[in-house]
Amino acid sequence: MKQSQENLRAKIFTKPQQVIAMAKPIIEEDEIEAVIAVLKSGILAQGNKVEEFEEAFAEFSGTRYAVAVNSGTAALHIALLTHGIGEEDEVITSPFTFISTANSILFTGAKPVFADIEDETFNIGPDSIAQKITPRTKAIMPVHLYGQSCDMRSLMKIADEHGLIVIEDACQAHGAEYDGNKVGSFGTGCFSFYPTKNMTTGEGGMITTNDKDIAEKARIIRNHGQKERYFHEILGYNYRMTDFVAAIGYCQLRKLEQFNQKRTGNAKILTEGLDEIRGLIPPYVKPNVKHVFHQYTVRVTNDFGISREELMVKLINKGVATKIYYPLPIHKQPLYQKLGYNDYLPNSEKAATEVLSLPVHPSLARGELDYIVESLLSCRND
Length: 382
Description:
Blueprint: H1 2-10, H2 29-41, H3 48-61, E1 65-69, H4 72-82, E2 90-93, H5 100-107, E3 111-114, H6 126-132, E4 137-141, H7 152-162, E5 165-169, E6 177-178, E7 181-182, E8 188-192, E9 205-209, H8 212-221, E10 226-228, E11 231-232, H9 243-274, E12 280-281, E13 289-290, E14 296-300, H10 308-317, H11 334-338, H12 346-354, E15 355-358, H13 366-381
Parallel strand pairs: 2-3, 2-4, 4-5, 5-8
Antiparallel strand pairs: 1-9, 6-7, 6-13, 8-9, 10-11, 12-14, 14-15
């Protein structure tokens, strides 16, 4: 894989003066002023701004509680710990996602068990989940990939029938919905505020829940295991969010719906353009979901005429950035191969060879979207 990436870079023989970027965080004057106000206040660590952000995010998500932490990975780790997941337990999750999803399970001493994805949505498949349940299964961790909700009705039914915990990895799906309910409100939700996300704090994360005890445990774990200062009840971590990070998040949250509407509109323009291009399959959106398009991910099939890697080279030479999310499923990663994973998950493995994400972020102008479509057409016809 490393060698193929080096070969790909070597083929990029011209560097356009301007490139349409894959992501472009929108930081405006209100975020800057909010950070300056925190810096001037002298209260930099976890304080009132964190509480304000938590309250606003809980209201937005339709949950009773939200607990801010310093990354999406920390949110996943804490969520698992609050539910008592540890050694001898199994957690079913997707292999087609960023590795932190599965690694957070390893952090607890539990075992990640991989269920295959749906071919159309790239999200974990309920039928595959049902086949992976054993007496050791304690939780399901679905990933709302690329900004589209998993099939939560089917998934929650499975969880209820088997007495399983549901921890939603919603790190790519801020504001996404299933049947009118926001992701992160079905089980214990986990969000990331990394710079490329639909809203950002630079780094940061959030846990959402309707369970008061889970929220309280999460607050203790994120702060060295202490409920009262210098009295440590359990093993905890330094997973706190700072006030200036929360101040950015509060500003970003107020703009999130606007950002998501722009992403959805951009996705619609791209899809209309891609309908003319044989061999490129645009994203499939289920009728009962609100897709927020963290990524706009197409499939590059053999019918396109050139390989995905050749297409990437041609696009960057035309000034259009692309990314592959993800080129290698987690169960095929070297770490997991060393741990003895040898699953055959055909949908995940096929997707890894075909997916390609195109720019869809809110800063794109209509002319740039048209240019992306024109570039794809010309790459096929070159």
